């Protein structure tokens, strides 16, 4: 897992080295955070790993699998 690291990420939002997201600010010219596949792949695989480690097969239409895996 890793935190967002695109050039438009809000640096140190949650403490030193802990970047976050921003909606941007048109008044100051600050751009909203750009997303990238590295961050989304990390989130996806972290969640899928928990579900699969619990012996649950991923199912596209089921939206309670993470809850079942940790519950």
TrEMBL record:
Region (Disordered) residue spans: 1-33
Domain of life, per lineage: Bacteria
Protein name: Phage tail protein
Organism, scientific name: Salmonella enterica subsp. enterica serovar 4,[5],12:b:-
